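Feature request disguised as a bug report, sorry. It would help if multi-protein outputs had a clear separator. Right now it looks like this:
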Amino acid sequence: MKKELEPKIVAFLCNWCSYAGADLAGVSRLQYPPNIRVIRVPCSGRVNPLFILRALRQGADGVLVSGCHPGDCHYLSGNYFARRKFALLKNLLEYVGIEPGRVQFSWVSASEGGKFSQLVNEVTQEVKALGQNQKLVKRK
């Protein structure tokens, strides 16, 4: 019997909102797939697009970037910068042939543990449907 491949997903989460939402999901014992690797960042605006490309190159099947809701950024405008950088990165990835669903951007506040759990489940299902990342993976 063939074992279903679980996708590797890297999540860059804002320390002030999304990471706290992920923590709340864990404390509340909400279910979400264990194949997500969380990287806490000071702000979603500090996520360099090269970090996302590197994650894909190192074998991640999908990447999630999540920050504070617009207007709630601890650093005032970091999430607006993140949104602009992310839009440009999505265009670049599409241009080079990477499926748009491999890289996701979302807003999750500290009180939205349920939303975080649901988001991770949705991202995992979407990336699983796309299959394993073969485009940017570094060949050994």
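(second protein starts here, but nothing in the output says so)
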Amino acid sequence: MVSKDQPGPLQSMTGYGSAEGEAAGASFRWEMRSVNGRGLDAKMRLPQGAEELEPQLRKKLAPLQRGTVNISLKLTREESDAALVVDEEALAAAAHAIQTVRTAIECDLPRPEAVLSMRGVLAPPTAEKTFPEVLLAALDESFGRAVAALLSSRQAEGAEISAVLKDRLTAMQKLVADVREGTANTRADLTAKLRAQVEEVAPGLVSDDRVAQEVVMLAIKADVSEELDRLSVHLSSFAEQLEKGGAVGRRLEFLSQELMREASTLTVKLPSAELKNLGLDFKEHVDSLREQVLNLA
């Protein structure tokens, strides 16, 4: 089991695991399928008589941490084990009833097959006989193997998702750098653009100081340094969580939401169509990021 101090690899919430075994004249097979879920929700289908195992089996699911897990047990017995048995208490009650009738009226003893056909005399094996300790122990051990197989499946897919996320992060970090570079000369660009517009409309009528004041106001409105700084921080936190591993899905969901919020603000404030396109590219990466993150435990 993975400890809290050692989070372990990332896990996808989807996976499959199985394990087989034989004991006490029975063969069995566990199958487990997990899908996305907000918490850890295990749904078990156990044969009658095996219900006592459920509490200890559920404890073995703790390493999965999140996801909806459907668990089934298919058990096949030898014919002799599945045969009906005589219920001693029911047989004694039947014998007492027969004796009462013979005391009241004179009649012959019933034939054995007639006694066996009386309600309750023949019954399925009791849970103790159906699931002896050796079988319960084998079921418990094989359940652990099935959980390990499921965990391995989920971790393998988690590694694939992690690789995709890291590629996305690299692309997003480059976009942040490109936007930062593109906005570095915003004030100079605004000055030249505004001066050209003023000279076209009213040549010689507006002072350089007035143009400079307008440029400052426009530059303040177009300043995106805070948004870029916050995006860089969120991307770094995202990368740290990926390296940390374990059940980081919820944390990454939150960071994805923060990335989208900052990216939306950034895109609106960017001063040129070229830079806005970079912002839109960033938002597309965030969308892809969120889709992948939703699969993580």
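Even a blank line would do. Unrelated, but nice: The beta strands are 15-23, 26-35, 40-45, 67-77, 85-86, 122-123.
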